[in-house]
Amino acid sequence: MTKIDLTNKTILLTGASDGIGRGVADYLMQMGAKVAVHYNSNKAAAEALVDKHQNGSQSFQADLAVEAEVFSLFERVVAHFGKIDVIILNAGVFLPHSTTSDTKEWLTVWKKTMSINLDAVGLLTKLCLDHFLEQGEGRFVYMGSRAVFRGETEEYLAYAASKGGLTSLARSVARSFGKQNIKSFIVSPGFTRTQMAEQFIATHGEERILNEIALNELTKPADLAPLIALMCSDQMDHATGATIDVNAGSHIR
Question: Furthest-apart CA pair in the chain: how many Å?
Answer without folding.
Answer: 51
